[in-house]
Amino acid sequence: MVKQLRRTRMAKKYNYQRNRKRVEKKIKNKGTIKDSLIKQEWQKGMSLSKNLDDLGLVFDSNKALGVPNNREERKKIIKIVNGFMEEDTSDLDVKKEEFSDEEEIEIKKKSSRSKEYVAEKLEQEANEYVESRFKLPKGVVKQVSYYMDKYGLNYKAMARDPQNYYQETWRQLRAKCRKFMSISDQFAKYLEERGLMDKEIDEGDPRWKEAETDDD
């Protein structure tokens, strides 16, 4: 008799502790729609593809855009260049007919889409500028503020500071300083605390000049 593996023996045992109702609910759950506009217009009785088509959306962008098979095209070009086959121009008329048919299908699809404004609204929202909400941790702000107060933008001097406990390189410190200066809220507070908010930054001031650095 073949000895069974432990995991197969364990699989045959009924787990009385498991909530079967919750398991079934989890299997049948199709997930939650986070976008309020899509959620509002989504028809629960319809299939996924039909819903997406009505909203003017697609599940697979590669299929929708019709990405060409470049590998086959390259093989064909190599054969033509090396003289293994002649270029066939008869396909051009066929392709034109195919494109015209595809255009007609696309026009019909667009006319059948009753909720295409959803896709237009989403595209508009995506194109709108959204300010980054990223903020540096308080510890990093304190560290960068200390370095900038003491050394300005001399990153190599920062790297040699005794308080550089983690032995960060000058490039790592430069990245931190540049990130700190790019966050308007935190950098504005830094300038305000030092009375530099209303003052014009002098380009010749050594505090604001990056010393001995490259542009990597």
From TrEMBL:
One of its GO terms (cellular component) is nucleolus. GO terms for biological process: ribosomal large subunit biogenesis. It is found in: Nucleus, Nucleolus. Its main location: nucleus. InterPro entries: Ribosome_biogenesis_Nop16. It comes from the Eukaryota. The keyword Nucleus applies. Keywords: Nucleus. Belongs to the NOP16 family. This is Nucleolar protein 16. It comes from Culicoides sonorensis (Biting midge). The gene is CSON002994.
